[in-house]
Design a protein that fits this description.
three-stranded antiparallel sheet; 11 helices; alpha+beta
């Protein structure tokens, strides 16, 4: 699993704590403080914010007290809202919910868009059923439509919804459409990183109030590791997956960390570090 990068941590920070009423911006000084807590220095924050601004995800804005800051663009808010349905998604759909097929044709003169289209469908969790035919659980239809429209790729794609009628068993088919071994390794990497974190928190006294900065730090890193996984793993029903599939356990571990740490970490975002105890 990839190491936490400053840019990815900033996206995770906005996703967890940055969608404020009225799209109020986060001050640059706050971004620097919050990223410093997870080991990112100020120059890295500034350069990463600049890249996100160039990509149209962050927009410069002034905070209520006039400080320089950055708010989410409308595209970024749509991306994060779509992401919520993945990151905190309900259990996998039943096979009866069917599939969404993306069938595309891109003129040779615009083959760069063909590469972009394949890349985006792969990042949305689609598998490859045949050349020019990609497949995913039907529940991904809405996010796929948003993504294709935002990237101006919709004119090249037809989306269909349907069910698998044969001839190979669907369980055998999905093993051709997705690299399940690679997806399983991502889940196992996440568990190797985050199960010890969860055990550490679970070993503490039941009534102990989490330290806000520690909770924030552990939660942001867990979220940053986890949020990529639901895009690599499209959320196939268990009956279509190999035995001992690790996806259920990794989702459980993230869910427990989210329930224990997210709100406690929000105190650090709002209030900053705890003041030092007075001596005497």
């Amino acid at each position: 699993m990839a190491e936490h990068t400053p840019r990815s941590l900033i996206v995770s920070l906005y996703g967890a704590y940055g969608r404020r009423p009225g799209n109020a911006p986060l001050a640059v000084s706050e971004l620097i403080r919050l990223l410093h807590a997870v080991g990112v220095d100020a120059p890295s924050v500034r350069s990463s914010v600049s890249r996100l601004k160039r990509r149209g995800l962050l927009a410069p804005a002034r905070t209520a007290d006039g400080a320089a800051g950055y708010a989410l663009s409308s595209d970024a808010r749509q991306l994060l809202d779509d992401g919520d349905r993945r990151i905190y998604r309900p259990p996998a759909p039943l096979p009866g919910d069917g599939w969404v097929l993306a069938v595309f044709s891109v003129p040779e003169a615009e083959r760069h868009k063909r590469h972009l289209l394949r890349s985006r469908l792969g990042r949305l969790g689609f598998g490859t059923a045949a050349p020019g035919v990609w497949i995913a659980p039907a529940g991904l239809h809405e996010e796929t439509r948003h993504t294709l429209e935002r990237l101006e790729l919709a004119p090249y794609v037809d989306l269909f919804r349907g069910e698998h009628l044969g001839f190979a068993a669907t369980r055998e088919a999905v093993a051709r459409w997705w690299d399940l071994d690679a997806i399983a390794r991502l889940h196992l990497d996440f568990l190797e990183q985050q199960e010890p974190v969860l055990r550490s928190w679970e070993a503490r006294a039941g009534g102990e109030v989490p330290d806000p900065e520690e909770a924030y730090r552990d939660y942001l890193r867990a979220l940053d590791s986890w949020r990529h996984l639901p895009y690599a793993d499209p959320g196939l029903p268990g009956e279509l997956l190999p035995k001992d599939w690790p996806g259920g356990r990794s989702a459980e571990v993230f869910g427990l960390l989210h329930a224990r740490l997210r709100d406690a970490g929000a105190r650090f975002v709002r209030e900053g570090p705890e003041p030092p105890a007075k001596s005497g």
